């Protein structure tokens, strides 16, 4: 399972969006949140594990995120929920001194620009190379879940690039996952003309879209205490054999500008002393021509 922690872009003022092309998008002062599609994927993985457990089967869940120390509280939460392995691929600058997450630390204060923010820098190849390299080094990996996209500026190509690198099939816009016999999954996915249901053979890559399951469960205090000593692995991209700078040079894309979407709605006050008078004014001003048009 691979997920991304993103800045809460709703908190950014419009002026910061306008200055992003020349000064970079400054997000250190806004809170970090789970990408919504990744959150659905994390919960779907837990539900799949729960279903298999009722059948006497076990699943070794692993979580990977690329970024600075701001992602460690999320990895700690996933460990408390039952993920056996939690890994952070860190910027080279902070990997040497990184340790277990400090629950009382200000995660945002340590945040630094990393390849994890590549959605704005259009570097899906670098992200995909890191994910694929980590999957290869993990024993018995046969299913990779990701969100179908990570946020503004993201083209949704990472799942496909990872699948191509691994030589695995990929299905996107997945909404449901359940086991179907040995080495198989029944999957539902949204397609252009409705809902597709298919049985897939492992290994495969699934990109989760608008799933009905949209929120990650919350661990209890007992869960956190029981697994608080479990470490978070911190790696550099170079340890996976990935040259991030070289991967990003091959992208061939550069950020030229960002702008917010105007979601405001225009309105008008309709004068009139009574509801009947207001309805007549609305009809005369806006509806008459539409209704009586030939």
* Major sheet description: 5 strands, mixed
> At the first level of CATH, what is the class of the largest domain?
Alpha Beta
Helicity level, as a percent range?
25-40%
User: In DSSP terms, counting alpha (H) and pi (I) runs of 4 or more, how many helices?
Assistant: 11
| Radius of gyration from CA coordinates | 23 Å
Structural class: alpha/beta
CATH hierarchy: architecture of the largest domain: 3-Layer(aba) Sandwich
Helix-strand pattern, N to C?
EEHHEHEHEHHHEHEEEEHEHH
Task: Explain the overall architecture.
The longest helix is centred in the N-terminal third of the chain and has 19 residues, at 36-54. This protein has helices at residues 14-18, 20-23, 36-54, 72-81, 92-95, 118-121, 124-137, 158-166, 221-226, 244-249, 275-292; strands spanning 2-3, 5-7, 32-34, 62-66, 85-90, 143-147, 170-179, 184-191, 194-201, 204-208, 233-236. It contains 11 helices and 11 strands. Helix 7 packs across helix 8 (158-166). It has 2 domains: 2-249, HUPs (Rossmann fold); 266-294, no CATH class. A 5-stranded mixed sheet has the order 6-10-7-8-9. The chain is of the alpha/beta class and 294 residues long. It is 34% helix and 20% strand. It is globular, with a radius of gyration of 23 Å.
């Amino acid at each position: 399972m691979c997920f991304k922690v993103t800045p809460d872009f709703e908190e950014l003022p419009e002026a910061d969006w306008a200055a992003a092309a020349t000064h970079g998008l400054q997000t250190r002062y806004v809170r970090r949140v789970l990408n919504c599609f990744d959150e659905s994927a994390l919960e779907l993985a837990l539900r799949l594990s729960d279903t298999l457990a009722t059948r006497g089967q076990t699943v070794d869940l692993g979580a990977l995120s690329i970024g600075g120390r701001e992602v460690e509280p999320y990895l700690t939460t996933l460990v408390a929920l039952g993920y056996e392995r939690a890994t952070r691929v860190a910027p080279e600058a902070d990997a040497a001194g990184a340790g277990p997450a400090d629950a009382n630390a200000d995660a945002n204060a340590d945040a630094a620009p990393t390849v994890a923010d590549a959605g704005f820098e259009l570097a899906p190849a670098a992200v995909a190379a890191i994910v694929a390299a980590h999957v290869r080094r993990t024993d018995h990996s046969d299913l990779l879940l990701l969100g179908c996209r990570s946020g503004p500026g993201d083209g949704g190509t990472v799942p496909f690039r990872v699948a191509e690198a691994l030589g695995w099939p990929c299905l996107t816009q997945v909404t449901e996952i359940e086991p179907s016999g040995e080495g198989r999954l029944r999957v539902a996915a949204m397609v252009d003309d409705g809902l597709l249901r298919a049985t897939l053979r492992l290994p495969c890559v699934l990109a989760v879209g608008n799933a009905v399951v949209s929120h990650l469960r919350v661990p209890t205090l007992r869960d956190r205490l029981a697994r608080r000593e479990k470490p978070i692995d911190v790696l550099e991209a170079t340890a996976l054999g990935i040259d991030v700078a070289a991967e990003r040079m091959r992208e061939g894309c550069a950020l030229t500008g960002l702008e917010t979407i105007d979601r405001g709605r225009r309105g008008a006050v309709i004068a009139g002393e009574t509801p009947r008078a207001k309805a007549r004014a609305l009809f005369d001003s806006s509806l008459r021509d539409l209704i009586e048009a030939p």
